[in-house]
Amino acid sequence: MKNPKVFAMYLPQYHCIPENDEFWGNGFTDWVTVRNAKSLYNGHIQPRVPLNDNYYDLSIEENVIWQAKIAYDFGIYGFGVYHYWFNNEKNILTKPAEILRNSRDINIKYFLSWDNANWRRSWSNVKGNDWAPIADKEQPKQTGPQILIPYILGKEPDWRNHYEYVRTHFMSANYEKYNNKPLFSIIGFSNEILEMCESWDKWAKEDGFDGMSFIFQNTPASFVPKKDWFLYNYEPHYVAWIHPSLEVILKTYPQRIINKMCKTFGINKNRGISYYDYDKVWHRLINYVKQNDQSNVIQGSFVGYDDSPRRGTNGSKIIKGATHKKFAFYFRQFFDIISSQNKPYIFITAWNEWGEGAFLEPDETNGYAYLNELKNILR
Hints:
This protein has helices spanning 18-24, 30-35, 61-73, 95-102, 156-170, 191-206, 237-242, 246-264, 278-291, 308-311, 324-340, 369-378; strands at residues 5-10, 78-87, 90-92, 109-114, 119-120, 147-149, 183-186, 213-216, 230-233, 272-277, 297-302, 314-320, 345-349, 352-353, 358-359. By secondary structure, the protein is α/β, with parallel strands linked by helices.
């Protein structure tokens, strides 16, 4: 039995960039939505405040080094850093990953997780990813779709251009390699993405690696990855609301019908809040991993979840009842199961998703309690 390496997913959206200044106002980072969060019910801890009011700026090297040191000291092997390459003209929020790439004072690994989708406003009907819908509140009312930054996969010359950038990370000693293959996660899946991956695999071999080790998050059930390529179950999304329990389906089905009708007839209706029970979500996750031990699946886990800072009362999801003791109780079982399955990795949601209530970093409510629990398990 070999213990898996634990990576915490990492959001780089805590430093100013021109695009955020343009779209949401000067100085916007995810800290804006975190600070402005509201308590929505009795006992709802919002806003969440980082310990010692440490609203850090991730364009500053010392802050990234501080994060890496804490993560290492508490047993975390590395960070899965979100990567926002939209097209040849737009690659944003790159600074933290580049600090991890270049610094000689960092003793943890990292890999890139590509969020390959359009960057759009939350009111848009264009398919893609939401960014920070609460930030749109002060914007003038808009109608119709608006893509802020288009995602363009392009063809082989564009794939090569993207590869030339990410290879600067692959060449870093700090970048994670699986069997001498750079680890690279891709959230959006398509046949064209697979073509790109084959090209990257070839180019990585030309660079002296044994190919690429890709991780795919959203794939059709029929897809079978190649050797040393993986599927990834991102949690708590996978067991809580992508493949929910019958109880959750029955509870949320009427609202889903209403939402569909509103969308069909163009009715702008507040979708409310969906609540989930921390113990029940973890029980479902534990049962799932017991019954599914596929070697090519990287299984995620989670700390907590509450995306109301970003979505307010319009479609937010809140998992209620989290404590550091409960986290320790469930994660220990989870870790032991994954270890017995000899899987190479566990990915945790998350290191610093403050806007989704999923963070291991110390805060004013719990201090280092979650990290201390994690250290006791991993060490």
